[in-house]
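Need a sequence for this fold. Nothing fancy.
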């Protein structure tokens, strides 16, 4: 069997070099990760600020939307009321005109009927008058 022999210079210089390399690797990794962590923290901070800005902007938009919605609702309500008032006035005016026309026509028809009745009754009245005159003579 072959035996493994380690050269004493390797132990004397190699082991400290290995430890120094490991230590240097750990130090460089720590520095790299520290810098990366700082960069990620900065990015997270920036994203939080952007999120806060977006939330504030969203609140402003919601308030503006609510205000615009309130204004539009008020304007629509006012226009609807004006339209209803105008339509009511127009309806009443047209109803009055229609009623006036019907009243005039009814007056004319009544006058015509009165005249027709008068024309029917007039000969009877005259005949009765003559009969009374003849009876009294």
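Here you go.
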């Amino acid at each position: 069997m072959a035996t493994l022999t380690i050269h004493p210079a390797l132990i004397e210089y190699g082991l400290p070099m290995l430890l120094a390399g490991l230590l240097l690797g750990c130090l460089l990794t720590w520095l790299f990760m520290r810098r990366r962590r700082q960069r990620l923290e900065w990015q997270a901070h920036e994203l939080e600020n952007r999120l806060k800005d977006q939330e504030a902007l969203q609140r402003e938009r919601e308030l503006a939307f609510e205000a615009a919605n309130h204004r539009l609702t008020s304007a629509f309500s006012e226009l609807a009321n004006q339209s209803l008032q105008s339509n009511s006035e127009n309806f009443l005016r047209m109803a009055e005109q229609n009623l006036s026309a019907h009243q005039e026509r009814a007056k004319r028809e009544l006058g015509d009927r009165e005249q027709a009745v008068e024309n029917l009754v007039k000969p009877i009245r005259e005949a009765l008058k003559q009969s009374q005159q003849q009876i009294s003579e």
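For context: Residues 8-136 form the longest helix (129 residues).
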